């Protein structure tokens, strides 16, 4: 199976069995002037995860991306994770207090990054709108996720990619994941009906956009675009009050 255009949503660690790697397959090249909220989250070795601009000083991402990481930065306003745009250092990290990395269940998989210097807002760098608290996303809703995740083993996509998905019924997703992982009320699933598409390692923490809002954060999943195993996303609407509390603006 080709993994060319496969892009992100796995944890920053590799789990032995099962392989809970979020993958996106079936994507197409994307441009930040259409996705101006997208950022690349980087450590000293380069791109590691995605993130979304929610304020000129703050980035929303996945908690699992940040465990054990230091000297973080983000790149915004570029189609490429390794050049162009604007780079900002991260001064503070806030991981949700109920996230437990030892449990490896990805519940409460959400975090906020405080930048050391504000981003210069413009056509290619803009905050994304957030859902209201507990806002519902209906089954079958068209959604879009994006990132620079792996296109093949250990190879990141140099170009930002995107893929169109639809949300999956929560009960159906829970039943499909029995014995693999738990789909909690703070998660939802999205995938493709008639073709292979999904998010991949390196896309974790990135955006899932729907109804003109940031509805999800790329979190986890089983395998790569596997039938009956859609990608699993942190439900941003469940954390709207927490975000408001943690952002000091």
Automatic annotation (TrEMBL):
InterPro entries reported for this sequence: Peptidase_S1, Peptidase_S1_PA, Peptidase_S1_PA_chymotrypsin, Peptidase_S1A, Trypsin_dom, TRYPSIN_HIS, TRYPSIN_SER
Organism expressing this protein natively: Tenebrio molitor
Protein family (similarity comment): Belongs to the peptidase S1 family.
GO biological process terms on file: proteolysis
Record-given protein name: Trypsin-like serine peptidase
Peptidase S1 domain ranges (all copies): 24-248
UniProt superkingdom: Eukaryota
PROSITE patterns: TRYPSIN_DOM, TRYPSIN_HIS, TRYPSIN_SER
Keywords: Disulfide bond, Hydrolase, Protease, Serine protease, Signal, Zymogen
Signal peptide start-end: 1-16
UniProt GO molecular function: serine-type endopeptidase activity
């Amino acid at each position: 199976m080709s993994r060319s255009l496969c892009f992100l949503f796995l944890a920053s660690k590799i789990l032995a069995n099962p392989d809970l790697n979020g993958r996106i397959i079936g994507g197409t090249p994307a441009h930040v002037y259409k996705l101006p909220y997208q950022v690349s989250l980087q450590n000293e070795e380069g791109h590691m995860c995605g993130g979304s601009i929610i304020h000129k000083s703050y980035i929303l991402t996945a908690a699992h991306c940040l465990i054990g990481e230091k000297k973080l930065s983000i790149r915004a306003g570029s189609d490429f994770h390794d050049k162009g745009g604007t780079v900002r250092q991260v001064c503070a990290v806030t991981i949700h207090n109920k996230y437990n990395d030892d449990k490896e269940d990805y519940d409460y998989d959400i975090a906020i990054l405080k930048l050391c210097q504000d981003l210069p807002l413009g056509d290619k760098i803009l905050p994304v709108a957030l859902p209201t608290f507990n806002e519902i996303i209906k089954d079958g809703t068209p959604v879009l996720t994006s990132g620079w995740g792996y296109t093949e083993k250990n190879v990141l996509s140099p170009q930002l990619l995107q893929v169109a998905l639809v949300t999956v019924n929560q009960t159906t997703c829970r039943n499909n994941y029995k014995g693999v992982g738990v789909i909690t009320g703070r998660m939802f699933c999205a995938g493709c009906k008639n073709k292979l598409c999904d998010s991949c390692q390196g896309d974790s923490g990135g955006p899932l956009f729907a109804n003109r809002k940031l509805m999800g954060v790329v979190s986890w999943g089983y395998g790569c675009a596997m039938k009956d195993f859609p990608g699993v996303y942190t439900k941003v609407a469940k954390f709207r009050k927490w975000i408001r509390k943690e952002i000091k603006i």
